[in-house]
Design brief:
CATH topology of the domain at 2-27 and 102-198: Rossmann fold
Radius of gyration: 17 Å
Distance between the termini: 9 Å
Subcellular location: Cytoplasm
Number of strands: 5
Family: Belongs to the CoaE family.
Strand content: 5-15%
Catalytic activity: 3'-dephospho-CoA + ATP = ADP + CoA + H(+)
GO molecular function: ATP binding; dephospho-CoA kinase activity
Bound molecules: dephospho coenzyme A, adenosine-5'-triphosphate
Shape: globular
Organism: Butyricimonas paravirosa
């Protein structure tokens, strides 16, 4: 079974492309949503985050106060390092358990911070979604109730695309005039060829 990493900075179009890949019948692990789930229900993560940031980091209903954590970590390199150190190992463990239940020839793992979290060793191939910075900022602003400054804060905590590109096996260009489905199908065709040669 081939494990494929799917990455790209905030607003590059990962979720959109992951949905297309899922529709084509391939399993996709969405790390942002899994991280959110784990942060809300894993008692050890909850204890660590409460120790670091106080009990108000969780809301009365027991779920994380996302706005509060985002405001703290995207302005504080030490804090983000600590949070990553708590959350990322739990996501990796959960992903490995999920992998062992999959039966398709290849599966995908979607994460904005695959390289930043040093997860590349988990994958046979990595696909980068590359979209111009300005397009990403505009897309996130129109998708979320957020500001340009807040999007830039997150981008500043992510590796530049040029470095990510040099570490990736495939690139999907997802600017407004790029033909995305054609690129996805071409990569899947290549992965099928690789898989059938291995089988
Ligand atoms: C800070 C939190 C609460 C903000 O929640 P929110 O719903 O606003 O954002 P969401 O989780 O959907 O992430 C949106 C995007 O923000 C960026 N982002 C999120 N976490 C990080 C991080 N640790 N480092 C850099 N960028 C990040 C990514 O581009 C991501 O796709 C949340 O992102 C979080 O808990 N982050 C820490 C855990 C983590 O690293 N998650 C990433 C997947 S493993
Ligand atoms: N090719 C495209 N053309 C126009 N809009 C697009 C395209 N791809 C994605 N979008 C839109 O851009 C926004 C960001 O895309 P998406 O949510 O898939 O990005 P993401 O990389 O998953 O973002 P995040 O890192 O914040 O989770 C969404 O509103 C999506 O509908």
């Amino acid at each position: 079974m081939l494990k494929i990493g799917l990455t790209g900075g905030i607003g590059s179009g990962k979720s959109t492309i992951a949905k297309i890949i899922k529709t084509l019948g391939y399993p996709v692990y969405i790390s942002d949503s899994k991280a959110s789930e784990l942060i809300n229900r894993d008692e050890e993560i909850k204890r660590h985050l409460t120790e670091l940031f106080g009990k108000d980091i969780y809301q009365p209903d027991g779920n994380l106060d996302k706005k509060r954590l985002a405001t703290i970590i995207f302005n504080d390199k030490e804090a983000i390092k600590k949070v990553n150190g708590i959350v990322h190992p739990a996501v990796t463990r959960d992903f490995m358990t999920w992998c062992s239940a999959q039966r398709r020839p290849f599966l995908f793992f979607e994460s904005a911070i695959l390289f930043e979290a040093k997860l590349e060793h988990l994958f046979d191939y990595i696909i980068l979604i590359s979209t111009d910075l300005e397009t990403r900022v505009e897309r996130v602003i129109s998708r979320d109730a957020t500001t340009r400054e807040k999007v830039i804060e997150r981008i500043n905590n992510q590796m530049p695309d040029e470095i990510k590109q040099s570490k990736s096996n495939f690139v999907i260009y997802n600017n407004n005039d790029d033909k995305v489905i054609k690129q996805i199908l071409s990569i899947i065709h290549q992965l099928n060829n690789i898989h059938s040669k291995q089988a």
